[in-house]
Amino acid sequence: MSPSPARSKPPPSQLASLMNPTPDPPDEDDHMIIPEIYESEPGFLTQPQHNNQSNVLSSIFQKLEDLEMKVTNANLPTNLETLITRLNDRIDELAEKQRKMDKIINDLLIKSDNNKKSQGSSNELVSPPPSTHLPQATTQLSFAAVTAGTKNTNEQTLPKRPPPALCQNQPQEINKFKKYHIVIQTKFGTPKPFEKVSSQEACNTINKVLMEINATYENAPIRIRAFTRYPSGDIKLYTRLRAEARWLLENRATWTHRADPLFVTSPPTFPVIVHSCPTYVDVDDEICRNALLHQNEIEKKSVDKIRWLGHPKEKDKSHGSLIIYFTDKNLAQQVLRGGLTFDGSFMRTMAYTPGPTQCFNCLKTGHQAFQCKEDPTCSKCGGKHLPQDCTDLNYTPSIRRCVRCVNQDRSQHQTVDLYDEKYRHSALSQKCPIRQKEILDLTSPPRIHGE
């Protein structure tokens, strides 16, 4: 075999044609040389974080220009296959470097997302760095990175600071000088207690009684700090704690009469309305009242009084509503939940909310006696004194006479007949027209000018 002739150096025109071949159909061997490098990496051209395609192509074109310069300088290999092999090797090297760079960038993005999530879950707020006028480089982030960074923005709260440490000698009280008080009302028509003793003597007497009955709260003895007496006879007591004042009020029946025999108080009652009660029940008759209690297995001592709500008998009604004043709170709650029965009829119950209070000092409606600043009015004769101090010999308990209606007509210079039917009610009765007008004024909404 004869040796093959040596290949001569191709001219520049032929080299240019080799570098820019004509668009003939490619052969199967060299089909899509460059794209198959990227096809070996799934998703390489689909990275949204960076313009990988343009960067790689730019580097390839730069290398091709360098190769063209080398060919121009007669450094081009004589074999075309060798040139193509070198180009493919160089492109493989560039693709491998780009692959490593993308992996590093992805790791950094994942680490940044994890740091933002951990920072959002904590309660600490990091103050932003002071703003500068230098331009800041902007980094294009993916949609997932942006949403992960702003996910917990609203969940960040101010840091929780521990309460300031108190001094060891500082008392655990808001205001040790603040005193709590209660007002214990005396029973209407009874003499005034502690009338001829000083406040200091009254405090000492009450504290002595509380010590005798072992009145304590949280293993500490209950003591009163101050004492005030109202003109009506009601007593106001000051204590150190609110719970102590509440104890004195709830248990007043156990110590008031020991402190002063004249200190007679009304027991706390819990009124309940009983609907659909037959009007033939006579609440003033002890036998009928006991029959009502016996049919419902209620002890007599558990009820203070029973009265009608309104006057159903006078209105010829067959049924009406009763108000039963229980002295036992638990019993009143059981009656509210279960109801009562009488003579085979079921009577539903509900809590009773009393209307505006009436003052026992001036007999007006809207305030209580310990709040009253007016002169007293006797409910028996209408004089300027309390009922227990009344000396009117003409007063007859069996004959009711409203002193408020009588005094009003006398002030208007009208003829007053004490036996007139319009005066045949008590000054504390719901029938009193003066009291009805006062209740209406208190319960009616205010009128607007022009209505």
CATH class of the domain at 270-351: Alpha Beta
Q: What's the total number of strands? A: 11
- The class by helix and strand makeup works out as alpha+beta
Strands of the largest sheet, in order across it?
7-8-6-11
In the CATH hierarchy, the architecture of the domain at 270-351 is 2-Layer Sandwich
Query: Biggest β-sheet: count, sense, barrel?
Result: 4 strands, antiparallel
Task: Average the pLDDT over all residues and give the rounded result.
Answer: 76
Element order, helices and strands? HHHHHEHEEEEHHEHEEHEEEHH
Distance between the termini: 132 Å
**Number of helical segments?**
12
Offer a concise description of the structure.
The chain has helices at residues 12-19, 35-39, 52-72, 80-121, 143-149, 199-212, 242-250, 256-259, 286-295, 329-338, 403-411, 433-443; strands at residues 180-184, 216-217, 220-221, 224-229, 235-239, 270-278, 303-308, 319-326, 340-342, 345-347, 349-351. The protein is of the alpha+beta class and 451 residues long.
